[in-house]
Give the backbone structure.
Amino acid sequence: METSLGTIEIELNRGRAPITVENFVSYVEDDYFNGLCFHRVMKGFMIQGGGLDSTGEYRETKAPIEIESNNGLKNVRGAISMARSSDPNSATSQFFINTVNNDALDYPSFDEYGYTVF
């Protein structure tokens, strides 16, 4: 992933999160993320992108995907995960990169579902 501050290398785990990886890759292949920004940066937690452009406008997304958080992958520093609402099956294009180990987001988390690492 090329950003204005440099390259971010992302490794995807299709074996553990096939639906999520297919979803993410489909957005990449459609050039969906081009021109979008990291719109939520929380020091000591994570950075989130995949939904807003630099003017704060949302792009239309594809249908939400089924959650795959019970896959054994953990929200450790550097891991990429799907952002979602309180509905566990609401992830679309937005993702976040953990900047620290976020054990509280692992399956089962405070809301019983966790956040899918892929």
In short: Residues 36-118 form a domain with the Cyclophilin fold (CATH 2.40.100.10). The longest strand covers residues 46-53. The beta strands are 2-3, 6-7, 36-42, 46-53, 80-82, 95-98. The radius of gyration is 13 Å.
